[in-house]
Design a protein that fits this description.
The chain is built from three helices and four strands. With about 100 residues, it is α/β, with parallel strands linked by helices. Helix 1 crosses helix 2 and helix 2 packs across helix 3.
C-alpha cells in the first residue's frame, strides 16, 4: 500500500512570550484541528486564563477540550463553572482528577 501525504505544515514562532499570544495560538490550534478533523485538544492552563480563552475561542465547535492546569485555588469560580459546562475533562493537582461530561 502506497500512502501519499500532501500536507503542508507551518510553524509559528512568537518573538516575545506572554499571555498576549494566547488567542493567536488557540486560533491556530482551532484552524489545524478543523483542517485535520481532530475532535480533541489538550490545553495547559496554570491560572485558568488560557482555559477560559480556549472555551471562548473553541465554542460552537465539536471539539472536546482537556484542560491540564495549575492549582484549583488559582482558577476563578467563573472559570471552574465554565469548565463544568463545556470541557471533556480537566485535571488540576488534587488527589483525584475531575472528569466532566459536556
Amino acid at each position: 500500500m502506497n500512502a501519499r501525504f500532501d500536507w503542508k505544515n507551518e510553524i509559528v514562532y512568537f518573538e516575545v512570550p506572554g499571555k498576549h499570544n494566547t488567542d493567536t495560538a488557540l486560533r491556530l490550534a482551532k484552524e489545524r484541528a478543523t483542517k485535520l478533523g481532530t475532535r480533541n485538544i489538550v490545553v495547559a492552563s496554570t491560572t485558568g486564563f488560557t482555559a477560559e480563552r480556549a472555551l471562548e475561542i473553541l465554542k460552537f465547535t465539536n471539539t472536546r477540550i482537556t484542560i491540564v492546569g495549575g492549582k484549583r485555588k488559582d482558577f476563578s469560580q467563573k472559570v471552574l463553572f465554565l469548565l463544568r459546562g463545556r470541557v471533556a475533562t480537566y485535571y488540576l493537582p488534587t488527589k483525584y482528577h475531575i472528569p466532566i461530561r459536556p
